[in-house]
Amino acid sequence: MMFRVFKLVHRSREVGRILVALSFVVIVTSMVIFNPYSPHDEVRKDHVSEHVSSSTTVCVDGHDTWTNNMKATESMSAEEMYRYLRWTNSTSCHNAVDFGFNIGGHQGVAAVDGHKAVCLDKHISPDMNNCLAYSFGIANEWAFDEAMAKYGCQVYSFDPSMNVSAHDRSEHIHFYDIGLDGENRLHPTKGWRMKTASSIYEMLAGRHGDSALIDVFKIDIETSEWDAIPQMLNSGFLANRVKQLVAEIHLEADDALEVLRHRVQILRNLEATGQDQAGGFVRFSSRPNPFFDVPLDVSRYKKGPIPMDLAWYNSRYYPSVV
């Protein structure tokens, strides 16, 4: 009797092992049959990456497909352009730090202003106590300039609207009553002295050297950026002289769609990475200025504040990202 029981138990164990083995075979077979990826996918990925257009924008912030397949600017809606402007691409810089800020009230809510993002990643970071910054648009707000000076940069500050003549504000901050523009001229309505970035750099070559790289080039010049940035791009100034660019861009609430498209195209040219492009700047920050509540209508459902602070670095000095 005991022998029969033992045989039954033994057989049941064998059946159990067989069932487990069959279940494993079924699972593995299902995975192979229904796997959506080919065993050659890795080869295909490598092959595809060799043929992806180098003019696509680098994006690692959750918008890869959308940004890399963005429409031509002339076909973009206002909402699509707004989405593009708000795209941060923040993970392209692992150590973005705000330089200079003030805390003030805005409609009963505390808001921060005056701060600008600077990327402190290796290769692109300004060297402490040995760096150069240009700052256009002061309006008696020195927080950014003083923060860069405290970091150890020589800071050249520019603003023709303050009715203050050129002077050294400190050992590290040097002020000039000159405005940034797309050409050398007097301002058509204000009479201010306006110059291109190249002309200003040549003027100051005796102070900071004629081959010095500008670690951070900051502009907050109340719509004149739309004349200055194309000139700096077309002349090669940005590509050859500037490591990081931070700009407060300005959009008017009543801008026509074509005006908005023209301005968005300027930024896309700045960010273009093709070999025949003068851009090559990688965005790492985008945020609205909290002290402006002028609405920009982008659809029936959304409104966007203007102006906005954007920041980029020159991929020529951070080549691993592009």
Defining key terms:
9 helices; about 325 residues; about 25% strand; globular; alpha/beta; 8-stranded mixed beta sheet
Verbal overview:
This protein has 322 residues and is α/β, with parallel strands linked by helices. The protein has 9 helices and 17 strands. The strands form 5 sheets. It has an 8-stranded mixed beta sheet with strand order 7-8-6-5-12-13-17-14, with helices on one face. A 3-stranded mixed beta sheet has the order 9-11-10. 33% of the residues are buried. Strand 15 (294-297) and strand 16 (303-306) form a beta hairpin. Helices cover 34% and strands 24% of the residues. Helix 4 runs parallel beside helix 9 (257-271) and helix 7 (225-235) packs parallel to helix 9. Residues 5-10 and 31-64 have low confidence and may be disordered.
Spans of at least 5 consecutive residues whose pLDDT stays below 50 are 5-10, 31-64
Q: Can you write the helix and strand succession as a string?
A: HHHHEEEEEHEEEEEEHEHHEHEEEE
Given the helix and strand composition, which structural class is it?
Answer: alpha/beta
* Average residue pLDDT: 80
The strand count comes to 17
Q: Quote the distance from N terminus to C terminus.
A: 78 Å
Largest sheet features: 8 strands, mixed
Number of helices: 9
Q: What portion of residues is helical?
A: 25-40%
Q: If strands are numbered along the chain, what order do they take across the biggest sheet?
A: 7-8-6-5-12-13-17-14
CA radius of gyration: 28 Å
The coarse silhouette is globular
Q: How big a fraction of the residues is strand?
A: 15-25%
